[in-house]
Amino acid sequence: MRKPEFIYVIYIETTPEKLWEALTSSEFSKRYWWNTEVKSDWKVGSPFALVMNGAPTDVGEVLEVDRPRRLSYTFHHVTSEAARRERPSKVVFNLEPYGKLVKLTLTHEDFEAGSKLLDGISKGWPAILSSLKSLLESGTALEIPVSALGIEGVS
C-alpha cells in the first residue's frame, strides 16, 4: 500500500537561482514564512531546522542538494506531542525553469498511516508557497493569518 503524500505545484516568475535562495536563506524565509528561519549549511547529512521566534518547530537532515534544481530533507515536527511521536517525513523541492518561469514542485511524503502532520502540512504549504510567489514576483509577501489555515490546535 502506498504511503500518503502531498504534492503541490506552483509557477513563479523568477529564476531558479532566486527561488533557491528564497528556499534556503533564513533572512528571506522570515519574510514569507511567518517569521520562520530555515537553518542549515545545506550539505548532505547536515542538520536542518525551521526556527520560529528562536524555537525550533521542525528538524531534520539534508538528504539531497543539487543547486538550483533539487533540494530534499527529512522533516520532523517537534512542537506537537502527536507529531513528535511520528517518524520523520520527507520534503523534496524540484525547480524546473521554463523561460521566465520556474515550476516549483513540492512533494512531502513518507507519512505514517493516520498521520496528524499530513493534515497540517496540506493546509500550511499552499499558504507558504503562495506568499513566497507573491514576494518573488511583487516584492511583497502575503500576510496570511495562521488562523485562516484551519489547522487544528494552531491559531
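the 2nd protein, sequnce then structure:
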Amino acid sequence: MVDIHPLRRLFRYTRPYRGRLGWAVAGMLVYAAGSAGLAWIIKYVFNDALNLRNQQYVAEVAWGIVGLYFLKGIGSYVSSYLMAGVGQRVVMDVRNALYRHVLGQSAGFFSQKTTGQLMSRITNDVNQIQQVVSETAGDLARESLALVGYGALLFYLDARLAIV
C-alpha cells in the first residue's frame, strides 16, 4: 500500500471547492497588496506629511491610509469567509466518508473499540481537520503572500539594500 502524506490526502477533499479557494486566494492577494501598500505609504508620511512646509499632503496620506486599511480588511474578510466555508464543507465530506467507513466495519471492530474512542475520533479529530483547512492554512497563505508583497516592495524601493 502506498503511504500518502496526510495533508496531501486531506487536501484531496478540497478539489470540489477549487472555485471558492481561487476567490479566497484573490482575497489573500488583496490583503497582501493592502499590507504592502501600508508599508509603502510610510515613505510619504516621513517625506511629505511630517514636513512642516508640505502640509497639503496630510489629508491625501490620511485618506490613503484609510483606503489601504479598508482594502486590507476586505481582503482579510473575503479570504477568511471563503476559507471557513471550504473548511466546513471539507469537514462535512470527511465526516460522511468516516461514517460510511465506520458503518462498514465488522462486529469484531465494534467489540474491540469503545464508544468513547469512536466518538472522539468522529468529533474531535475531524474538528482539528477543520481548523487546519480553514484557519491555519488560510492564515499561513495570507501572511506568506503579505511577506512576498513586503519583499517585492523592498526590492522596488532599494534592490541593493534588499540583497544585503
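The two ends are 48 Å apart (CA to CA). The chain is about 85% helix and 0% strand.
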